[in-house]
Amino acid sequence: MRKNLRILHVLSQLPEYTGSGHYVQALLAESAKKGHRCFLLSAGIDRWDMEGKDLPYIEEKNQIIVPFESRRLPFPIPGMSDVMPYKHSRFGDLTDKQMELYKEMFCEALIHSVKTFAPDLIHCHHLWLLTSITRLLFPEIPVVATSHGSDLRQMRNLPRFRGKVLEGCAKLNRVLALSAPQKEEIRQIYGISSDRISIVGGGYRSDLFTPKEKPEVPPVTLLYGGKISSEKGIPWLAGSLGKVHLPWRLIVAGRGTGQDGKRCVDMLEALGSKVQMVGQVPPSKMAALMGKSHVFILPSLHEGLPLVLLEALACGCSVVATALPGVLEIAKGITSSILETVPMNVSPDTVWAPGQESLSNMALALERQIGRTLSGESPPVPLEKLKNYTWESVFEKTEKAYFTALEETSPL
């Protein structure tokens, strides 16, 4: 009989406000159902997120926070993306001294966590610097790590850190990928053999994201939910909507930061009263917005496995999304009348001024979905597809990877 485990999760971001953080929270919930005991080491902002921000499924005594914007770490949390939903710094801008402080503080916290919690296994998030540090610091403890996609971009964009990342990540017991295309990308970038990479996927909360009665049309209600940033394709979306001549209104749920975010917000607001900005919202509010929306839009330039699409489909939305590998994996077996994919001819270099072909492709996809809604079509919820993306299913595969790592006689 397999025993209940003591699992230490390690996350270099704020767990409350990032996709990887929500993923960790889902794993904590599923672990609790199986009788495992979890602990969490994560980034924080001084003592800010220890008051009134308790995470479900884990007691405060089982959390350790590495405090940024503090006396010993006097700079914001380095984000796994260059645009984050909170104040942050960029890894590419960190000085050698800041990197020394980053490593020193996390090493102290890791040593304290392992001494306090005595984990059977460590589960790191992102194939990046902190995961490498963790693997090298505890060669005697099995370490598995999940790639959330942004780590792969950092490896491509920041060769300065490549050696440090590979030093530890190449020695991980198991790596968990969100999709088949991502597994291949991990193999190529990190040189990790395929037999050490498990595809575990991602999930959505089927108790929260359910179909609701949609409002009367016209207009057709469009919804965007996520960071308001150029890498999420906001300039592309704003430019395309100017070419859509059917009746629509757009709800934008999210927030932007810095000059990039401000510029994106300005572009959206320039579309006038048809755009409603509601700010960053919790999952319950997002589920309510999806329930009242007809079409969900994901114009991102980068995504791993976009769980937000699963949530939108579960709420009865039709979808327009960039034809990224993770999107195409979800789209398999779903008709285009439910999920329209748009070729991505936009790059970070052209995102602020997409070509006419790119704008037209997005506008035409939007018009097709808006037209279907106006004609009375109601997309069926693709239940057969969605049942493959429950958190219970994700954790079953994750747990299998845990026990595989534990059965190894020594770290690789």
UniProtKB/TrEMBL annotation:
Pfam families according to UniProt: Glyco_trans_1_4, Glyco_transf_4
Domain of life: Bacteria
Glycosyltransferase subfamily 4-like N-terminal domain: residues covered: 19-203
InterPro entries noted in UniProt: Glyco_trans_4-like_N (IPR028098), Glycosyltransferase_grp1 (IPR050194)
Single annotated GO MF: glycosyltransferase activity
CDD domains: GT4_PimA-like
Keywords: Transferase
This protein's name: Glycosyl transferase group 1
Species of origin: Dethiosulfovibrio peptidovorans DSM 11002
